[in-house]
Here is the input.
Amino acid sequence: MSDFIKVVIVEDEKDIRDMLMRLINDSKDVRCEHAFADCRSGVEGVLKHQPDVVLMDLGLPDESGIVGIGRIRDKFPEMDILVLSAQVDEESVFDALCAGACGYLVKQQSIENVVEAIYEAKNGGAPMSASIARRVIASFQRKPTKLISAREKEVLNELCKGKSYKLIADALFISEETVRRHLKNIYKKLEVSSKSEAVAKALKEKIV
Amino acid sequence: MSDFIKVVIVEDEKDIRDMLMRLINDSKDVRCEHAFADCRSGVEGVLKHQPDVVLMDLGLPDESGIVGIGRIRDKFPEMDILVLSAQVDEESVFDALCAGACGYLVKQQSIENVVEAIYEAKNGGAPMSASIARRVIASFQRKPTKLISAREKEVLNELCKGKSYKLIADALFISEETVRRHLKNIYKKLEVSSKSEAVAKALKEKIV
DNA sequence: CACTAAATCCCCCGTTTAGGTAATTGTTTG
DNA sequence: CAAACAATTACCTAAACGGGGGATTTAGTG
Here is the structure.
């Protein structure tokens, strides 16, 4: 067993791949001996060599790195997978994190810090480029929804606990009829037509 | 207008407060002239002095820093609020982020890096102690739920779109009766008894 | 002061849903 | 191979729900 942090790279651009390898192997405590240029062989290589950390690109020629992350995750849930991508769109970021990445580096911003990020990942952290981190945090924050009134929000809140009309009525000390009326208004405002739809929308849009 | 990043501290322990102030005022580009020892006066001070960054403790004598964060957020949504707390429990972390914090530093781990974190926050980042960052990221990942079968997961998926039995049946090319049956099983497994409850649970527990 | 919006309560009616019981067909797995 | 489980369909009933009316009170706003 070596003392090095073993790294595998999956990245299609040869220049970047080589640069990453050099950056890593010039640093102490980390070592990269295997790098792959597409997703399928990358995943295969990762499963075979079982590194401590994977550096994963997203825009790969054969299939998205995101599905690769999922595959690796299924086999080795403890492995640290760091995304290193040029893509900064909402969907790529969150899909990658949902798939199991433990960090997300934007190529343009953080490629020189990749070794530092590897240390951080091994240290139980979650290295992210600043802009990514901010967006991740922002995703927790409720967006201000003028549409729904305060009282309606309370009703919606109870609804999201899965309560029936009757239970909501009890919780808010109003009649079942009033709950029904609020729900009608909420449905109109959210453009939905059932409790489950309303709950789904409310939770996804972080209204509650 | 000064060129300094203006910082206000809200922290009840005098020793820490003083140390933070020294750390900040010994660094360049940042300056702290106001510090408060409880939440209410802290919020008041923040609203009055309108700093660029707020350093906020959570365990304050009068009320939780979390409500303070919310109050500040309501007035100045663009202000960067950094939590600096000893509390590392799940609830404190996520409540603080939901309330509007843009970063979370664990006192024991990151107090020396507080100035660095302030720079990072002003730079559009979201400074977090390593363990916090990892937990934030982990919260995106679907927890492996053996309980629900693959087919049931599909049904649950459609359910989370707010569909009726009939529409789910159409979407999955099965009879309404089968949908009903799946739902019954899902309800049992999730320990719920209605569509909205199931949707709420599925989305909150990230089953879908 | 009139107007509006929010919150409250009421009725009706048809549809949807939840829970019970039962049965058939594959697939997986010990 | 038998047992267990997943997926499928069926029927019945009472309760819950969604959409359609209408009404009152209070608070805020032009």
In short: The domain at 5-140 of chain B is CATH 3.40.50.2300 (Rossmann fold). Chain B has a mean pLDDT of 95.
